[in-house]
Specification:
By secondary structure, the protein is mainly beta. It has 2 helices and 24 strands. It has a 4-stranded antiparallel β-sheet with strand order 3-2-1-24. Strands 4-5-6-7 form a 4-stranded antiparallel β-sheet, with no helix packed on it. The chain is globular, with a radius of gyration of 19 Å.
Length: about 325
């Protein structure tokens, strides 16, 4: 029996107590691993491998999920939304490991769930990529909408602000989501030019409602509700610039613990803790780091047998 099935069977039905140690997903290659963080060390408690997913077509098991680049907890922790730069997107049921949705999306780099059972996927640089795609979670392999998103690297649904925030090479953009799961409508409401050397790479929510965003030269805190106006106006549904729309407020502040710091592929904050991945071998790493939210007391967590790309806290 594959190790992923053994580990999953041991813990699949065991709910985490309220005071449980923090957990996160780490992903890279064709794997997703769940780690429990205890006293500065990690304990692997669950693993999923595309190669073992018998409910997937062969092209997903052998090629489309070969380089997983995001593994985001969704549905209140009951699911994991997975993207891969090799062209696959899947939604996994955490307890069973069963795949409930799949799609082919060239250079998919991040995704999130939207209201009404929709899924937003950010696609990076590819002749059929550089865009934002929207799907219905009940209809695999069927994109319903696409919008330009050059070097798409981030997608985060913000329930409090009722907006989808997406990250590209130069911008963060916010979209209103309307319509239905069969006919979605996205309308851009604001955009903010990235700071520093730009080249946006990761976007995640902070516990305080602000965002962490990585660029080529470091990590920044982004607050879409405060700060000086950006130089650019928002665009409409078709990418045109509406007449008379005021520039969006918003501010970027360097995160002292990780700025300057190049090639940070992923960063997340939860419960006073920070976790990040910094590339060591080309685009991947041999481990991740956890620390206090201010970057103090960092602990390096090695990951063996996987070309690590992202970590995501499980809230």
């Amino acid at each position: 029996m594959p190790i992923s099935m053994i580990i999953a069977a041991a813990v699949a039905s065991a709910p985490a107590p309220a005071d449980a140690a923090p957990r996160l997903y780490a992903c890279g290659g064709d794997q997703i691993r769940e780690y429990r963080i205890e006293s500065g060390r990690s304990v692997e408690v669950w693993r999923w491998r595309a190669a073992d997913a018998t409910d997937l077509p062969a092209r997903y098991r052998t090629a489309l999920l070969a380089h997983i680049d995001d593994c985001k907890p969704v549905d209140g922790g009951r699911g994991i939304l997975v993207t891969a730069s090799t062209g696959g997107v899947v939604l996994i049921e955490r307890v069973s490991g069963r795949v409930t949705f799949r799609a082919t999306a060239p250079m998919a780099h991040s995704a999130d769930m939207l209201p009404g059972g929709m899924i937003a996927v950010a696609l990076s640089i590819d002749p059929k990529g550089d865009r934002l795609e929207v799907y219905d979670r009940t209809r695999s392999e069927t994109p319903l909408l696409h919008l330009p998103l050059p070097s798409g690297h981030g997608a985060v649904w913000d329930r409090a602000r009722d907006r989808l925030f997406v990250l590209s090479h130069d911008l963060i953009q916010a979209y209103r989501v309307a319509g239905t799961s069969s006919a979605p409508v996205l309308t851009e409401s604001a955009r903010w030019t990235l700071p520093g050397r730009r080249d946006g790479h990761d976007l995640s929510r902070r516990p305080d409602g602000r965002y962490l965003v990585t660029t080529d030269d470091g990590v920044w805190t982004f607050d879409p509700d405060a700060g000086d106006p950006d130089a650019g106006d928002a665009a409409g549904p078709a990418g045109g610039r509406p007449e008379g729309r005021p520039p969006a407020p918003g501010t970027y502040t360097p995160l002292p613990a990780l700025n300057p710091r190049p090639r940070v592929k992923a960063v997340g904050m939860m419960g006073g803790r920070l976790a990040w991945v910094q590339a060591e071998e080309s685009w991947w790493a041999k481990g991740f780091t956890i620390a206090r939210a201010d970057g103090s007391d960092p602990v390096r967590i090695p990951v063996e047998g996987m070309r690590l790309y992202k970590v995501r806290w499980i809230r």
